[in-house]
Design a protein that fits this description.
The complex is a heterodimer of chains A (249) and B (402).
Chain A: H1 3-27, E1 46-51, H2 60-68, E2 80-88, E3 93-97, E4 112-121, H3 129-133, E5 139-141, E6 147-149, H4 159-163, E7 170-171, E8 178-179, H5 185-188, H6 195-199, E9 205-209, H7 216-223, E10 226-227, E11 239-242
Parallel strand pairs in A: 1-11
Antiparallel strand pairs in A: 1-9, 2-3, 2-4, 5-6, 7-8, 10-11
Chain B: H1 2-15, E1 17-18, H2 31-54, H3 65-78, H4 80-86, H5 95-98, H6 109-139, H7 144-151, H8 160-193, H9 206-232, H10 239-270, H11 275-284, H12 287-311, H13 316-342, E2 354-355, H14 368-388, H15 397-400
Helix pairs in contact in B: 2-3, 2-4, 2-8, 2-9, 2-13, 2-14, 3-6, 3-9, 3-14, 6-7, 6-8, 8-9, 9-10, 9-13, 10-12, 12-13
The chains are: A alpha+beta (249), B mainly alpha (402).
Chain lengths: 249, 402
């Protein structure tokens, strides 16, 4: 084999190896081929359970979250919020964000069929559309199943905000990067609870490791009939709701 | 910054109808993102018109061949600008090349764009103009002589063999170029069509609708430019060429209209969970821009005019006037289409319970004035390109033999 031939063959070998590698990467798009990302490691996989019947709509979780996570105080930016549902006897549904009830319709008690509060937050999907669409990989899933945003890398294109079916993301008005709930990652890494869970007076929010049998979350999942938001979108949320009403979207 | 923004959002908050998720008040993709697909659509459409000459041998359209290529290039140069201006961190835009997320449709932007600019448009224009550039640079004075010389990359060969090679290269590039043009704009459609969270966007038809509306807008733009530039040069419009282009425009509009109608009927017939809020959206927020501008003025009226032109043998002057009106109406309609997709898709809540409002800024970086500048800029580039690569007074046959 002369030198030219040798170089040519080596080069084509390297190129085809590279091509094979990238093919594997591209095939990851297909769900059946993609590796299971959560639950493989010894690390915990975090989730949250929400007991709708226990929420009294006090809004302390929203307040604590804003303080803990540097969320602007204005009523257009939320990492977590609480919705108040009023279903009237005539079937009409009135929904309000409890942090912003200005101009809200007051329904006389005799017209109310049922009413309840629903805390909302990022669902930390196992199959997150926001991670899929981020062009630069600034938003990603950790091994613990938490979806994070790297604010040093985010370019502020807002595709993730469009892709989130739950409206959980917003553009931080001063940082100009996408922001959302991360289960208070800085706290849970130290073994603390997320701020919203910590302050909830009725323990409507249950936080824990989905893998550990000792976690309160597993007990919550054993004791309740559960539902997630928009299951038909196949996002596989890790936030589940006990006694979720069919009107909640 | 923040107090201003707060004031604006508080104002919007009062106009919310029903319930929206609290983070949804702000419309995130603004007028600039309306302009972006409009511009790329014009690029793809103009290129496809040009390729009619080279690949499908439509001789009648020859007079606009070079104009179409230059138009495509001028608009492509500006196309990334609205995206860049819109980013929260424009200085980090390069990350889309350095660390692209291969699962993201948007990450492909850089590659699709670079491919189209470098491999398709620049290369094709270079091969098309090489002979003329060599000849021009031989008889011109400073500075055009040197500009043209540098653009030819100092090649001098104008032998028949070299010219044959040029011709062959152009043909091959055009053949690669057609699927690339489809890719360029189909991909923009995919960015919207693949958002499953948004029922207004999420549709497999989206890339195809984008593509045909692109072809419509591109052909209409080249007709408009041809009708403006040629009289300015005190030359006569080639009515054969104009009729042929209008004919292609007519068919493209019919396909586009049918696709959009299909999408509309399909949604209505399937009548999914989102149908109520989408109907409210269309009636309350998009009535004028969708029914009046996009459908009535932008499609049905131009179609009617073109049918009349086909049925009756109007005189040249009247035909010119009607074509002129038609292409302007079509531009208006296609811009409206982009508006209805981009802005419309963000005006309803993903809770399907309410609508928000878009209040366009006038001055800000994402305001009306920026958008107008971005829309005018391609014409400035085109004027420059027409100076450097004058498409007129050229005998094409030397290339035709190849």
């Amino acid at each position: 084999m002369d030198r030219r031939n040798f170089l040519r063959k080596t080069l084509s070998f390297i190129i085809s190896l590279g091509a094979l590698g990238s093919l594997k990467e591209i095939l990851q798009v297909i769900p059946a081929v993609a590796e299971v990302k959560n639950g493989e490691t010894a690390k915990p996989v975090y989730g949250m359970g929400i007991q709708i019947d226990k929420c009294i709509g006090c809004g302390r979780c929203v307040e604590a979250c804003k303080i803990e996570n540097d969320v602007p105080q204005e009523p257009f930016f939320f990492r977590t919020w609480v919705e108040k549902y009023v279903i009237k006897k005539d079937g009409t549904v009135i929904v309000q964000n409890i942090a912003n009830e200005t101009g809200a319709e007051t329904v006389p008690e005799k017209d109310i069929l049922r009413s309840f509060f629903v805390p909302k937050l990022c669902n930390q999907c196992a199959n997150p559309p926001c991670v899929q669409v981020c062009p630069v990989g600034a938003t990603f899933s950790t091994e613990e199943g938490v979806v994070l945003v790297d604010e040093k890398r985010c370019i502020g294109c807002r595709y993730c905000i469009q892709a989130c079916p739950y409206g959980a993301r917003y553009l931080h008005p001063t940082k100009k990067t996408a922001d959302k709930c991360n289960f208070c990652y800085h706290r849970i890494e130290k073994g603390l609870l997320p701020a919203c869970v910590e302050v909830c007076p009725t323990q409507a929010r249950v936080f824990g490791d989905l893998k550990s049998m000792a976690s309160p979350l597993v007990r919550f999942k054993r004791m309740n009939k559960l539902h997630v938001l928009k299951p038909y979108l196949n996002t596989e949320p890790k936030v589940s709701y006990a006694n979720l009403d069919g009107e909640v979207r | 910054m923040i107090p201003q923004m707060t004031e604006k959002l508080l104002e919007l908050l009062k106009q919310v109808m029903g319930y929206i998720y609290p983070n949804e008040i702000e419309i995130h993709w603004s007028i600039l993102i309306v302009v972006y697909p409009y511009l790329t659509g014009l690029v793809a459409g103009a290129f496809i018109l040009a390729s009619l000459v080279k690949v499908f041998n439509v001789k009648e359209v020859q007079p606009t061949y070079r104009l179409s290529l230059l138009t495509a290039l001028a608009f492509l140069i500006v196309a990334p600008l609205p995206l860049l201006l819109h980013l929260g961190h424009p200085t980090r835009a390069y990350e889309i090349f350095l660390t692209p997320n291969l699962h993201s449709a948007m990450a492909m932007f850089g590659f699709v764009y670079a491919w189209y600019l470098m491999v398709v448009l620049l290369l094709e224009i270079w091969f098309v103009y090489r002979q003329d550039l060599v000849l021009w640079s031989e008889r011109e004075g400073f500075p055009m002589k040197w500009i043209h010389k540098i653009i030819t990359l100092f090649s001098k060969d104008v032998s028949q063999r070299a010219l044959n090679f040029d011709g062959k290269a152009v043909k091959i590039i055009t053949i690669i170029g057609i699927p690339s043009a489809f890719l360029l704009h189909g991909y923009v459609g995919f960015i919207f069509g693949s958002v499953k969270a948004n029922p207004w966007w999420s549709s497999v038809l989206m890339p195809i609708v984008f593509l045909f509306s692109a072809i419509v807008s591109g052909i209409a733009l080249v007709i408009l430019l041809y009708m403006i530039i040629i009289p300015f040069r005190r030359e006569k419009l080639d009515m054969n060429c104009l009729d042929k282009m209008a004919s292609f425009l007519f068919y493209a509009v019919i396909v586009d209209f049918s696709l959009e109608l299909l999408d509309f009927i399909h949604r209505l017939y399937e009548s999914e969970e989102s149908i109520k809020i989408l109907s409210e959206l269309v009636i309350n927020k998009l009535f004028v821009s969708l029914f009046i501008i996009q459908v009535l003025l932008g499609m049905i009226l131009p179609l009617g005019i073109m049918v009349l032109i086909k049925l009756f043998k109007f005189q040249d002057e009247l035909r010119k006037l009607l074509y002129f009106v038609t292409v302007i109406l079509i531009q208006l309609g296609i811009f409206s289409t982009r508006w209805n997709v981009v802005i419309g898709g963000q005006m309803f809540s993903k809770s399907f319970r309410g609508l928000t409002t878009y209040k366009m800024e006038l001055m800000g970086i994402e305001g009306l004035i920026t958008a107008l500048v971005v829309l005018i800029l391609p014409f400035v580039f085109l004027a420059l390109l027409l100076k450097i690569f004058p498409p007129w007074g050229i005998k094409e046959p030397s290339l035709e033999k190849a």
